[in-house]
Amino acid sequence: MTTFAPYIEYARKAFAREATYRIELIAEIGSVVLRVYLLRSLWTALYAHNAAPTGLPLHSMITYTTVALLMSLVLEVDGTRVIREKLREGGIAVDLMKPIVVPFAYFSDGIGQTLLHAAAIVPSLLFALLLVRIDVPSLPVLAIFCCSLALGYGVNFFVNFLMNGVAFWTLETFGLQLIVRWISDLLSGQILPLSFFPGWFGRAVFALPFAAIYSTPLLVYVGIIPPAKWAAALAVQAAWLAATAGASFLLWRAASRRVVVQGG
Amino acid sequence: MLAAYVQYWKINLLTIAEYRADFFMWFAFTIVYHGTALAALAVTMLRFPSMNGWSLREMFFLYALWMTAHELHNALFFNVVSVPEYIREGRFDRFFVRPFDTLFQVLTVPSRTFPDGFILGLVTLAIATHVAGIHVTPFTVLTIAAVLCGGAGIDLGISLFVAALSFWLIRVDTLRWIVMSLEQDFTRYPISIYTRGVRIVLAYVLPFAFMNYFPATYFLGKHDAAFGLSPEVGLLTPLIGLLWTALSYAFWNLGLRHYQGTGS
Known about the structure:
The complex is a heterodimer. By secondary structure, chain A is mainly alpha-helical. Chain A is built from twelve helices and no strands.
């Protein structure tokens, strides 16, 4: 068990560090609650003036957007952002010398940040419930939702890892990263259910890794993915997790060699 | 003062010529930033053709009007956003020993500013005006130009207000980020979809509705379903912009006096 100790310490430190930014956290909660209000207004107005899409009545839609916003509290945590900062300031070399597996350390750091932000879900949900009513599904659905969310969290971590890893080759990646984040917000189903996308594009978005982050857990939650298709949906997520993790492993191997060359 | 301002733009252009890759990356970001917002709107309205009586074409014009005014603000006044950073790092104090107005000096700190976003906005607005079927006369062009200036003034008023708060509070970055992101979200839809309290805030407290909603009802010849005001109210935008900028400038000066007080 001793081998896990440093990583637990990393997570604990990250939690404590994030907890000092209390105003930021309160602001984040406020921002989520305001967005719940905004999206409630939007969907209520749209459903009042148009025919509802099949299989997605207003209460399901509001549940979808509210749960998506609460999920964003933990999914917008980027534990690998430190790669970019440490590369610029040179701290990465020190990390590589430590007797740890560096990506695991960053993952633990991310977990610590996530746990603190997960705590913010409770007050956000309480305030949100003053504005909207959300559906609470049965226990099995909730259990599968949690599994799917965990897989999505993993895919999100490795997508971020890959994006930040690009910094090993070109130092200025912040703009690029924002571009990917904006596109991924749209294509992951965070803003809209992916089933709203028309035609072939609507089918293509489900084939991208972004759909594994928000869309699959949310569609399980609102019941659009029926129990019969749970296994297949989670298998696709697991495949993306394996693929992005594998790519991250290759990137890390190539990148750490590169740092040595620069240092020598 | 004019000579100094011309010099500022010369330095900006030279900097951009030097950092071309960086410039293109941020230009790509601007396209993605507005592109994803418009794409989300288009996808939503393919399913729900009516947004409280507004069609997709009209919604496109509503967004383009906000986008162009906002990008005009970014091109001319973006440095205001850096004021909290200048204060924190002690770089603000040097503005006091130079023979120019402090705000003028903030606005002319060399940065990699280029009106690329504004040009993109003008092109988008021209397309949106055509698509929305607005009959364009020289008078329309003049009023749209006045509305854009007024809109940029409203934006400046708000960012200047937040910047001036940093004379009292050290961390306003989160507040600024939230105001900016909520501005983009809440101005995207006709304010008639919101409840009365929020409509009043958007019209009279933080007058974002004058950036696009009121002028758009005027240009599109629509009925204002939020307050039942006459469409000509949209022509007040330049006045509101001027008023907001003046009020914020007074508040800024108040902050400056306070800041000098603590410094001595």
